[in-house]
Design brief:
single chain; alpha+beta; 12-stranded mixed beta sheet; elongated
Amino acid sequence: MGNNQSHSGRSFRSQFLSEEQAEIDRLFDALSSDKSSSHTSRRSFSLQALKDHVGGALPAGMVTRLYDGMRSVDLTGTAKGPSENVSQEQFTMSMSYLLKGNSEEKSLVVLKMISPVESSVKAREVQKFTEDLVASVVHVLNYRQELRGWTQKEAPGAPSRVQVMAAQLLSEMKLPDGRKLLEPEQLDCVCDQAVIEDWVFRVPHVATFLSVVIHKGLLVLSASLSLATLIPECHVDQGREFASILDVLSVIYINAHLPREQQHRWRLLFSSELHGHSFSQLCGRITHQGPCVAVLEDHNGHVFGGFASCSWEVKPQFQGDDRCFLFSVFPHMAVYTCTGYNDHFMYLNHGQQTIPNGLGMGGQHGYFGLWIDIDFGKGHSKAKPTCTTYNSPQLSAKEDFQFHRMEVWAVGDFQSQPAKSNKSILDVDPAAKALLEISGRSPHSEGLREAPDDA
């Protein structure tokens, strides 16, 4: 494309590669030649043309927002408001900014998608835009059948999962006075382009979600969008449809905090619905399976859990490393990473009389940030004021809680459980065997088992 003047008067050059620009041009030609656009110039398109092209792939409100953002691009720096229709230059610039631009360029279009005529907006307008953006992502992925095996559901009552995700994104916004947008009374604060730019820069999901809406909603440059690390493949060994505790937005949120090499695939190891309410079943299915995400829903509807960065092992010591974290996804979304105060990352034990039996993460014996008792269905989340290991608050509705659903997912490339050895402790500890023989006692199981493979 040739040089045009941007909003700030600087020259604009498309950031698309030549073959990408050709696809952008073809889409514009299709939009500008739409028969419903009889009252528009041949080199521009109307809102109705864009709606007709998108069809049911995006909610009508998001299509209007995209259109407003496009027609509000100021090519000369002298425009007094949005143009009547979208020109080719406006279309190319807005697509270039949203898909490949820096945070300043993205914020120019985002601000106009929020309000096409104002240079600043109130925080509650940003909130509505964010909710529309999150809802549009779920909508378009469901419409294009690209949820990758996950189901989208709504928990009964308010807030909705869309509102929860939107609130998490908004909580990272810094208002002009430097405070984060955390309280309802702050929704009347004014946000200018500098606030929007800083928000887009620090919250990658905003730009990612815009990219999904454009690529999948307009079906343009789809090959350049990979969903592999955004939404992991969902694998359930039973081969039947499985409705997880997690909705797709919760999965997207948790997955973004995993190591990148583990973001492409999740495999169900344990579900209380499929495998029973049994602690022994839980232990048997999750040990030696590599990194895992454990999640549960308490009787009050709170959904929370933890990421175990290493394979679970049944032993009386703490395990894991500083990549572990705790999280909440409902009624609010948050991730809590290690503080460095101690190394009490993971704990799994049973069959002991003097130390706790159960699964825990963070804190200390009897005072875990997350604890699943061996009496399956009971647990606690004790944090006054926060968990020492993860700085997490109480995750459950009640400190001592009951739950009816729990799941554990292996993440990343699958690891199979090592084959069970038929070796006795006497095979791996010759000194113990010799001591037994010296004492005149014979190993009672010697003739009752097969010889070790390497005997």
